[in-house]
Amino acid sequence: MVRYFLSGAFLVWSLGFLWFAVALPQPAQKLATDAVIVPTGGAGRIGRGLDVLDNGLANRMLVTGVDPEVKPGEFAAQFKVPPEQMECCVTLGFVAVDTRGNASETAKWVEKNKVTSLRLVTTDWHMRRAVGELDRQLPGTVRVVRDAVPSSPSLATLFLEYHKLIASRLAGFLNL
Fold first, then answer.
1. pLDDT of residue 12
2. What is the CATH number of the domain that holds 67?
3. Is the dihedral of CA 71, 51, 86, 73 positive or negative?
4. Cα(164)–Cα(30) distance, rounded to whole angstroms?
5. Phi then psi for 84, rounded to 5 degrees?
């Protein structure tokens, strides 16, 4: 009986991993939202968020999980953000150190800024876990548009992120 259970569990895990690796989230359509949220940590995320601002698809941007050592001027210089855009439209969040922290920092910023819709920009392999964490933190009235940055993740990255997703879902299920 134990053998059947373990075989079944392995089959479910294998099919889940196959789905996770093959059906990565895609970039979003050109939908306007109140804000764009960009967790740090992956190539192309901040550039994509700034493109969303530049194209008028959002009015404000939160970059969550910024290293406390980074100064706004350094950020602006590195990503070629004009001073007036930094002043009006870009908020750097320095509190978060992980995906759960990104969601918490985002929820507080969303409440403070009365955001009712947001575009989450993160890497394709990270999207499912980031959205899951956000869903637990945000009120149900906030609409979240998923805007995945395409990547070419290694098998190791997919394997690790799949297990982080499982752990995140279990933590949510157990209210941890």
1. 94
2. 3.40.50.620
3. positive
4. 30
5. -65, -35
